[in-house]
Design a protein that fits this description.
The chain has helices spanning 30-46, 72-93, 100-112, 135-151, 166-170, and strands at 14-19, 50-56, 60-66, 130-131. The longest helix has 22 residues, at 72-93. It starts with 13 loop residues before the first strand and ends in a 12-residue tail after the last helix. It is an alpha+beta fold.
Length: 182
């Protein structure tokens, strides 16, 4: 992780981004997004993760998270490690995955060229934590996160995107994960 980006005080919300190596559109498949959701839910229930906002795009994930129980960098490390293994396994075991060979070759190439991995690398190494220590910074990142599917042309309105917390912020309905509003 670059010295410019370090987790500050874990109780303060941080904006983080997990990007798939090569910007591969893994999350165009529902099954792989569900692995992220289940993993986030586990971290909320068992590791003290507080989820304030989230969006799963086709090739990256944005979160606004905090924790007063465990170090945020440890939760993020474990989340990335677990999801990478589970998603690669799901790709390997998916007989209907038309891009299986290409994706696995890409993950293997990245992994064997990175001393931090043995075989596969799914996520880019960094996650650029940005401490949201002001109302202006928080609003800017929250808007950016929720508008991502609109800017990408996936939906007309941010709260229409299923894999996002926008519905929790802009309507009276609840999304797929329980969040703590900022």
């Amino acid at each position: 992780m670059s010295s410019k980006y370090k987790v500050g005080e874990g109780a303060i919300p941080h904006f983080v981004t997990f990007t798939v190596i090569g910007w591969i559109d893994v999350f165009s498949r529902e099954h792989y997004k569900e692995i992220i959701l289940q993993s986030l839910q586990y971290c909320i229930n068992s590791k003290g993760l507080v989820l304030h906002a989230w969006v799963i795009m086709t090739n990256h994930v944005h979160l606004i998270v905090s924790s007063t129980i465990n170090k945020l960098e440890f939760i993020v490390r474990d989340l990335k490690k677990y999801t990478s293994k589970q998603i690669i396994k799901a790709i390997q075991e998916n007989p209907n995955e038309s891009r299986k060979e290409w994706m696995l070759n890409s993950f293997n190439f990245a992994g064997t060229n990175n001393n931090n991995n043995k075989t596969f690398q799914f996520w880019k190494q960094d996650y650029h934590p940005i401490e949201l220590n002001s109302a202006e910074k928080t609003k800017r990142r929250l808007d950016y996160l929720h508008e991502n599917p609109v800017r990408s042309g996936l939906v007309w309105e941010s709260w229409h995107f299923k894999y996002s917390s926008a519905i929790d912020y802009y309507t009276n309905e609840k999304g797929l994960l329980v969040i703590e509003h900022l």
